């Protein structure tokens, strides 16, 4: 597909999408198909020759749509809302075009910076305590996760690392395995199934605290579990409180359980995946009271805030709890703006290579990242774009040679 066909098909696709949304009420909300319906309708292996665009769109209507559960039908009342809107669909198209991967600031500065600022906007809309915001170079901040399940897992793993470090600082002879055996995490018996799964993945016990008559976790039940477990030699370290459970939208009593977690040095994660968007409304904000006791907080804009899946907003009071827990420093992720604080033991040839890389990346005609192969600093030249031709590679090579000559000349002087 070239650019001119993309222009034409893109407009057709937008029409198809708009027609789908406008006509969705006329479609049966839940499909009639039986398990395995799809396989006989399409070839057993990928075709050797491409289909036409028309054929593909016809297949979408004939083969895919009959098997779609229409989450955006006004007759869909299952699970939970999943957000979608025309602006979010357009934004997805633009993201597809820019197609960058934002794993570090340098991997695409706008990506990281927009995320940080938007997370502050969103945090202010919720009136999150300032400690969770990134502005004014505070210790806290927000980060987008794919799902609330991931946010819970990330919080649990960070809490696990933190408690292990704390206990080992006090008793260096303790092994990680010995500590992990004793760690115990908690949630109410109404928590989302992803909380239990986070415990399984994190390799720690997870205990369900019985909820009260309103399906809320209360102080007394938590206290009881803590006392019993501590007496048995276990180490409570992590707690998930839910604001708006998936089953019946009940609320754990944060104002009661929050101070207990703080006193016991238990990381408190607040899962407001479902109901969180509502806290933007002043009349519902009181439901978030007690979040000031939390170490991390999460809700899903992809449930109720018109943002297409996946966008789960997570905030922490101490960014270093997350960055520290998952810290890895491969060479190709380092960049000149990073205050890595590392002092590299330069050898002659590595130093020259580093100087060359620096020249290349400050000239900004091409972009490379380095790696280390054993003790060698290596400039990686990866063919990345689909549209690279040998002329581009030639031009890049001439450019590199020129800069290399400059570096060597500077060395000699
Ligand atoms: C929906 C929901 C989740 C899971 O959300 P994902 O983003 O799909 O992982 C977790 N907790 C609660 C309370 C939920 O309602």
Structural overview:
The protein has 413 residues and is of the alpha/beta class. The chain has three domains: 3-78, dopa decarboxylase, N-terminal domain; 105-324, Aspartate Aminotransferase, domain 2 (3-Layer(aba) Sandwich), CATH 3.40.640; 351-411, Aspartate Aminotransferase, domain 1. Helices cover 43% and strands 12% of the residues. It contains 13 helices and nine strands. Helix 9 (254-263) links the parallel strand 4 (235-242) and strand 5 (267-271). Helix 5 (148-170) packs across helix 7 (193-202) and helix 5 crosses helix 11 (319-325). It is globular, with a radius of gyration of 26 Å. Bound molecules: pyridoxal-5'-phosphate. Residues 80, 147-149, 192, 194, 242, 245-246, 271, 273-274, 300, 312 line the site of pyridoxal-5'-phosphate.
Cofactors and ligands present? pyridoxal-5'-phosphate
The CATH homologous superfamily of the largest domain: Type I PLP-dependent aspartate aminotransferase-like (Major domain)
Structural domain tally = 3
Total count of helical runs of at least 4 residues: 13
* CATH domain fold name of the largest domain: Aspartate Aminotransferase, domain 2
Largest sheet: 7 strands, mixed
Give the SSE string: HHHHEHHEHEHEHEEHEHHEEH
Spans where pLDDT lies below 50 across 5 or more residues: 338-346
User: What is the C-alpha radius of gyration, as a whole number of Å?
Assistant: 26 Å
Q: State the separation between the terminal residues, measured CA to CA.
A: 53 Å
Q: From the helix content, strand content and strand pairing, which structural class follows?
A: alpha/beta
Instruction: Report the strand count.
Output: 9
Helical coverage, percent range: 40-55%
Approximately how much beta-strand content do the residues carry? 5-15%
